[in-house]
Amino acid sequence: MNKSKKLLALGLTAAFAFAACGSDDEASPATDAPAATDAPAATDPPAETDPPASGGGSICEVTDVGGVDDKGFNQIAFEGAERAAADFGLTADVLESASDADYATNIQSFIEKGCDLIVTVGFLLGDATAEAAGNNPDQQFAIIDFGYEEPIPNVLTLNFDTAQPSFLAGYLAAGMTETGKVATYGGINIPPVTVFMDGFVNGVAYYNEVKGTTVEALGWDGTDGTFAGNFENLDDGKNIASSFADEGADIIFPVAGPVGLGSSAFATETGGIRIIGVDNDLYEANPADAAVYLTSVLKKIDEAVYAAADQVVVNGEGGGSYLGTLENNGVGLSPYHDQDGDVPAELKAEIEELAAAIIAGDISVTG
Q: Is 120 exposed, middle or buried (CB count within 10 Å of its CB: 0-12, 13-18, 19+)?
């Protein structure tokens, strides 16, 4: 069932933001997307100008399955849309996709409504977005976690090099495990999921190389691994975490949207398991299980959506590409929060040094 949420607010400020990133009708990893050009950092504050008039346009989000309250990428995207609506005097709407059968229908509903910018959330909406954009060349789109081999003039692509912070998370996990085993798993075996998993296992391998250790990463071998087969079922997350715990893993990195919340609940119930969150800072977003989070790998979708609204709706510039990286603060690690005191000062310093080396190009996160 679709539900719609709308926000209408007077604009407070206007921004001068960045452009966005790309791949093809056939799925390709988000990290293959071209780097953005002449783009300020994702967290650059908007320039202060006269506030726009109320009702100056609309930004409309079509979610992937999981819903707008998934504590993950659908929710983060709409938070960016809501903030843009408040700051720029726009309206923000969302339609939720219960299954892939809803993608085209929801997009068409927003086309008929006359939305200035339709944001489609997720790799699985790539084909539906391309078809709608081709059939409606005057309609502006932005898509998260997908790109096109041949850029589409009216589609702004928003991608993120999540292998970078996931590499840091893998190194951190290898430095924190007490059993010598850590684990990762995905929702569905698609590039925007496996890019996190690649970074994580490569970070573990790099720790072993530097330290002469033999920490084992369960759940992904670079080609195949453990997947829930969905992004919704919390029981699957509990069962997968239980299986990893039985194998001896004491730190688990789910890349599975709400499925991962099941693993967090398992960690809370059983104790002795640390969880690394994904997309959002889950210590803040999932307070019921806050104590189990060592850190979260952040994909700052809200910043990208905010900038897309500025670029397309406010400034009238469609198309282009954006790639979030450690360098432009489009991705990163969250604070250690309650577990800060457990992380050795030396390991914290190494994580900071690794981030700087990745930005400088001195370390490859692809192994």
A: buried
